[in-house]
Specification:
It contains 17 helices and 12 strands. It is α+β, with helices and mostly antiparallel strands and 461 residues long. It has one domain (3-459): Cytochrome p450 (Orthogonal Bundle), CATH 1.10.630.10. The protein has a 5-stranded mixed beta sheet with strand order 1-2-8-5-3. Strands 4-12-9 form a 3-stranded antiparallel beta sheet. The chain has a two-stranded antiparallel ribbon with strand order 6-7. Strand 6 and strand 7 (352-354) form a beta hairpin. The chain starts with a helix and ends with a strand. The relative contact order is 0.16. The protein binds protoporphyrin IX containing FE. The site of protoporphyrin IX containing FE (HEM) has 23 residues, from helix 12 and helix 17.
Length: 461
């Protein structure tokens, strides 16, 4: 057994028992409708529901939805308290477990405390500068080819399904390498099924259900990754999978086969829908704010690269406006609108006692629209992210990637992909939407435009 696996056993999160209602009675809030609680309201309008509860009960309130009771903690201080988790009170394993455990068990975000720290350190080799440079080579190639296909198609296109497909194709190459072989289409299908199953309403894998397809997808993925580990260990691949196969702990011991498989599955899931969602809102906001689209194009043209030349890694730092515009899109529509945890011991926030076993959640979507933190919160204004403006804000006012020990491990990858995407798209096309068009966003579980986001692509001469 590897050192990582041994540590896993030594630091497993304790068994959790949900506290009874009377232990939460001092927290304002309500149980909502019988059986369903506030599930339907949350599904229909997650932002509106949280804002209504905040106005009625204050920034700490109790609610019941999706079959359980939980306490919402709102605002930057709450984000810091829960995510930074100075006193190690909050389990991510038990927070995310109900949603992700069956299909993405023991992914990094589903580990806690010392065990999590050990694994995170081992995985971080895949996100160092050297590997990132080689991922960018593949991103450039894939995005360039994808944009060329779009340009060759009809001028009006549905952006969301197109970017979802492209992001999956890109992930296949950066995560698995170029020589993936004939199974790649099946692998992509398996992932789509697993991700869809993670949020399916029917949680048992009954025949014909999404959960059954997700479970079958996982079986395929586990087998597919498992079969390749030895070859990847021996090879010199520069993809994320190969890096994980060779990753070791501080004491030089490799991850086990099962650990590699679990981390790979989780990583692909963590990257895919978040990037699809964020690139969609990025493109929408650049269509709706043509002045900003032009500013970004100016920044891209000023990089001094020939048309069609790949974006070099060294140029990423010369795209601050692009980064600010992407950040502003993530503020307005954070891909992870709410982040769950579960208290593993009694604690207290702003005078409210939170007993061990209680589920809590913090809410990036709510925080990112607080008018006292973000004046004119609905306005797209990337200048909120100048260094000076960012320094003046609470550190946990902007949390699209979470914060603390579980802060997104792939955030630099996300910025890199967003910049590479903006570079390839805006240097070759103008993008637009009809005047006044505002897509209806389905915000839960991961934001997406209900109509697929219809945009027009006009090739630049
Ligand atoms: C814009 C894109 C992305 C957003 C908004 C995003 C958001 C997040 C958030 C909010 C968390 C923390 C959840 C929590 O604390 O419970 C997280 C964790 C994570 N993300 Fe991302 N993510 C993005 C892209 C990516 C990409 C591209 C990768 C991989 C290449 C990735 C890998 C991870 C991993 C491994 C974790 C778990 C970290 C840990 O538990 O230590 N993410 N992400």
């Amino acid at each position: 057994m590897s050192a990582v696996a041994l540590a896993s056993q030594a630091h497993a999160t304790p068994f959790i028992v949900e506290p009874p209602l009377r232990a939460l009675a001092h927290i304002p809030g309500e149980d909502g409708w019988p059986v369903l609680g506030a599930t339907l309201q949350l599904l229909a309008d997650p932002k509106g529901h949280v804002e209504k509860c905040a106005a009625q009960f204050g920034p700490v309130y109790r609610t019941r939805a999706f079959g359980g009771r939980s306490v919402s903690l709102l605002g930057p201080e709450a984000n810091e308290f829960v995510l930074f988790d100075h006193a190690k009170c909050f389990s991510s394993t038990h927070g995310w477990g109900g949603i992700l455990e069956r299909l993405f068990p023991r992914g990094l975000m589903l580990l806690d405390f010392d065990e999590h720290r050990l694994h995170r350190k081992a995985l971080s080799v895949a996100f160092k500068t050297g590997p990132m440079q080689s991922y960018l080579v593949n991103l450039n190639r894939g995005i360039d080819a994808g944009v060329a296909r779009w340009r060759a198609g009809p001028a009006d296109m549905l952006f969301y399904p197109a970017i979802k497909q492209l992001t999956l194709d890109l992930a296949a190459v950066s995560f698995l390498g170029e020589d993936i072989g004939p199974d790649v289409e099946r692998l992509k299908r398996a992932f789509i099924d697993m991700v869809a199953a993670a949020v399916a309403v029917i949680r048992k894998p009954l025949p014909g259900t999404q959960m059954a397809r997700g479970v079958a997808g996982r079986a395929f993925v586990v087998d597919y990754f498992g079969r390749q580990i030895e070859a990847r260990r021996a090879g010199d691949g520069q993809d994320i999978f190969s890096h994980l196969c060779k990753a070791t702990t501080d004491s030089g011991i490799s991850l086990t086969r099962q650990e590699i498989v679990d981390h790979m599955s989780f990583l692909m899931m963590a990257a895919h829908d978040t990037l699809t969602s964020s690139l969609t809102s990025f493109v929408y906001h650049l269509c709706a704010n043509r002045d900003w689209q032009e500013r970004l194009r100016g920044e891209i043209d000023a990089l001094g690269l020939a048309r069609g030349e790949p974006l070099p890694y060294e140029k990423l730092d010369q795209m601050p406006l692009t980064e600010m515009a992407f950040k502003e899109s993530l503020r307005l529509i954070p891909p992870v609108p709410s982040i769950p945890r579960c208290a593993v011991r009694d604690t207290e926030f702003q005078g409210f006692r939170l007993p061990a076993g209680v589920r809590v959640s913090v809410n990036p979507l709510y925080t990112h629209h607080m008018p006292d933190v973000w004046p004119e919160p609905q306005k797209f204004d990337p200048l909120r992210f100048t260094e000076e403006a960012s320094r003046a804000r609470h550190k946990f006012a902007y949390v699209p990637y979470g914060g603390g020990a579980h802060m997104c491990l792939g955030l630099h990858f996300a910025y890199m992909q967003a910049k590479c995407f903006a570079y390839n798209l805006l240097s070759s096309c103008e993008i637009s939407i009809p005047q006044g068009y505002r897509p209806d966003w389905k915000l839960w579980p991961i934001p997406q435009p209900r109509d697929g986001l219809r945009i027009r692509l006009t090739p630049r001469s």
